[in-house]
Automatic annotation (TrEMBL):
One of its GO terms (molecular function) is ubiquitin protein ligase binding. It comes from Medicago truncatula (Barrel medic). Pfam families: Cullin (PF00888). Belongs to the cullin family. GO terms for biological process: ubiquitin-dependent protein catabolic process. This is Cullin-like protein. Residues 103-267 form the Cullin N-terminal domain. PANTHER family: CULLIN. It comes from the Eukaryota. Coiled coil: none annotated.
Length: 269
């Protein structure tokens, strides 16, 4: 630790506050980018078929309502472009946070032997955020439950990857000398313990997935992509999570179903 750092008792707090703000902005950024309204996305020039110069010229010729009327035939196309570009859009909107000075602040905190303190603060900040996510998922009702869980997971996962990149130096130099988990693994563990294993979520998640799968087996239309995404999330969190939350309950229900069918067949024969 150099003299300047040693003589500044607020060195860590100053740098941590900058990093904490960046981490919160990263979480917020992916959430906000996903929930931009059509009107807000409408104003992003790269989504438009018209250049800014062309739009400004058209708006000088036509009243606003007429201008919007002229756009109406291509609005379905714009919606399609938005759905395709939203992933890239959120990356572009959030990337500047990652390229800011946060990497440098994280690097120097570890370099000056604040790794343990930095890690502790990171755990507290991420835990607080994940618990807020859990509350949001718990509050979702009916068919929106799986959709809310999937959306929150996607946002969280992208943010986690960015935070991992910012703290890469800590992962490489501080973590190996401790029993602490690397940032990425820490993030997955926090999600598993606070969201998936929440008392208000775990059983409900198992039952909802089973309900969707059984409906599909019965020939009903279900959102297969949503089921696939949620089950992939469980697999990403670890084989035991997938087995406990989905596979084991599903096999039990399947066994009971086959048993009931066999009894019916025996009685019929």
């Amino acid at each position: 630790m150099n003299f300047r750092v040693a003589s500044d008792p607020e060195y860590f707090d100053k740098n941590w506050n900058i990093l904490k703000h960046a981490i919160r902005e990263i979480f917020k950024c992916y959430h906000n980018a996903r929930h931009l309204s059509f009107g807000e996305l409408h104003s992003l020039q790269e989504i438009f078929s018209f250049s800014k110069l062309e739009r400004d010229f058209l708006q000088t010729l036509f009243a606003p309502k007429v201008f919007l009327y002229l756009l109406s035939p291509i609005q379905p196309l714009l919606h399609l472009l938005i759905s395709v570009s939203l992933e890239e859009l959120s990356e572009n909107l959030c990337e500047p946070i990652h390229k800011s000075t946060t990497n440098r602040h994280a690097y120097y905190m570890v370099l000056h032997n604040f790794g343990e303190k930095l890690y502790s603060k990171l755990v507290a900040t991420m835990t607080s955020h994940v618990k807020e996510i859990a509350k949001s998922v718990e509050a979702s009702e009916g068919s929106s439950f799986l959709e809310e869980l999937n959306t929150k997971w996607n946002d969280y996962y992208k943010a986690l990857e960015m935070i991992r990149d910012i703290l890469m130096y800590m992962d490489r130099t501080y973590i190996p000398s401790t029993k602490n988990k690397p940032v990425y693994e820490l993030g997955l563990n926090l999600w598993r313990e606070n969201v998936i294993y929440s008392n208000q979520i775990r059983t409900r998640l198992s039952n909802t997935l089973l309900e969707f799968v059984l409906k599909e087996r019965a020939g009903e239309d279900v959102n297969r992509e949503l089921i696939r995404n949620v089950t992939k999330m469980l697999i990403d969190l670890g084989p035991s999570v997938y087995e406990q939350v989905f596979e084991t309950p599903f096999l039990q229900v399947l066994a009971e179903s086959y048993k009931a069918e066999s009894h019916k067949y025996i009685e019929f024969v």
